[in-house]
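User: Predict the structure for this protein chain, please.
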Amino acid sequence: MKPIELNRLIDHTLLKPEASEADIRRVCREAIEYDFFSVCINTHYVPLVARELAGTSVKVCSIAGFPLGAVDTGVKAFEAARAVEAGAHEIDMVMNLGALKSGDRAFAADDIARVVAACGSAAKVKVIIEAAVLTDDEKVMACGLVKGAGAHFVKTSTGFGPPGANVRDVEIMRAAVGPGFGVKASAGIRTAVFALELVRAGATRIGTSASVAIMEELKGST
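Assistant: Here is the predicted structure, written as C-alpha cells:
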C-alpha cells in the first residue's frame, strides 16, 4: 500500500483534555500537509477546526458521550447535534456498554439510533464498542446493534480505557458487519506496520495521534 492510500484512511486524533488551541492548529496543519482523512477533536474545538480546514479535503470528526458512553442518551444526541451544527462531518460516539453488558439490547440500540437521527444526513456516525472489555460474543452482538441502528462504522476503542486495537478484534468486527460497512481501528496504533496489519484485517479507517510518524515511517521505507 502506498503512503497516499494509507493517509486517506487516517483520522488524525487529538483528544487529550489538556490540548491547547496551538496544539489543535498544529494537528490541522499536519492533516492538511499529509492529506489525512480527518482531524478528530473534542467538541469544544469543532468551530476552530472547521475554520482551519475550510477549503481543504480534510474532514472534521468529533465525539459524543466520550469516553465512557454512560451519559443520558438525550445528552449524547444533543452533543452530537451541536458538533454537526458547528461543522463536524463525522461523530465518534461511545456505546452504552453497561446496557449491553446488562442484556438491554433495546436500550443500547436506541442510544445509537438517536445519535444517528440527531446527525441526520449531515454526518456519519462511528460507534465505539470498547472491544477490550467485551467477550467475543458481546463484540459480535455490539456490531449487530451498531449496524441495525443505522450507524456507519463500528470502532474498536476510545484510547482512554483498556488496551486498544488489535488484529483479532478487527477480524471479529469485520466478520460481524460484513463487507461494505466501516470498521475503525483506534488506540495504540503507532507504527505503519501495525496500521497496515489492521487494514489487512479489515479496518477501513485508522484513528491515531501518531499519524505523522506513521507517514514518515512509510516514506523512509520506500
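The mean pLDDT is 96.
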